[in-house]
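tool_call predict_complex ligand=GLP
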Amino acid sequence: MKVIIRPNASSATELTARIIAKDLRANPKLVLGLATGRTMESVYALLADMHRGNGLDFSLCRTFNLDEYVGLAADDPNSYRFFMNNMLFSRVNVDLRNTLLPNGMAADLEAEGRAYEDAIIRTGGIDLQVLGIGENGHIGFNEPLSPLSSRTRAITLTPTTLNQNAGLFAGGKASMPRRAMTMGIGTILDSRRCLLLAMGASKAQVIAQAIEGPVRSMIPASALQLHQNCVIILDQDAAAGLKAADDYKMIFENDPEWKEFRK
Ligand code: GLP
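tool_result ok
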C-alpha cells in the first residue's frame, strides 16, 4: 500500500485525475473501474477538462462501475448510471456501450451478479479500479462484515450509509433504496491496481482504521492492505488520524515512481 497525503482537496483530486490519465494514455484500451459519490465529482470534472483541453482519449477504454442502487432505473436522477452519464460519460468520448454498471433493475439479482463478474473477466479484468470510501469503511457498497472474498451481489445498506447518502436524494432518507448491487471485495482485489481517494475530516477516523488497523471485515477498506498495488490518496484532513503520516510524506517525496507527480 502506498499512501500519499496532499495539502488540500484540490491537489488530492488533481493527483488522482493525473494518475488515471497517465494510465489511460499508456493503455488506450484500459479497463477502468469507476466509483460514484461526491468525492469523485471533481475527479471526473478534471478528466473531462483533460479530454476537452488535451485530447485525453476514452474512445477505446471500457469501464465497470462498482455499484448501483436496486430498483433505480437508468433515467432516475439518483441512479449511479445517471450520475456517471452526467458527470463523466457525456463529457468525454467514451463509447456508452463500453460502460457497464450492475443492473439494479434485474429481475434476478443473483444472476446479474454472476453476469457482471463474467463481463469483467471477458475484458481481461480491471486494470485500474478507482475507489472512494464510506464513513463506515465501505468500498463500493461492501458494508461492514462483507466477506473479504465476496463477489458482485445484492446487499442491504446500513443506517450509516443511508445517513451519509440521504442528502443526495431529493426525498431524503425515506426515498432511498434499502438495497444495492455491488462488486465484491474479492472482485475489487482482483483489479491490477487500486486507487482510493478520500478527503475531509469525516473520513479521518475510518481511513486510520483502514490503513493502520488490522485487516477485518468490519472495515471493508482494510482489505486493500492485501492488494499488491494499491495507492491511497488523501487530503490533509482525511489523513489527520494517521500515526505515521510523516513517514508516508517522506516516502512520497523520495519514491522514484512519483517523481513526475511531485511537481
Ligand atoms: C457511495 C458509493 C461508494 C463511495 C461513497 C463515498 O456510498 N457507493 O462507492 O465510496 O459513496 O461517498 P462520498 O464520496 O460522497 O463521500
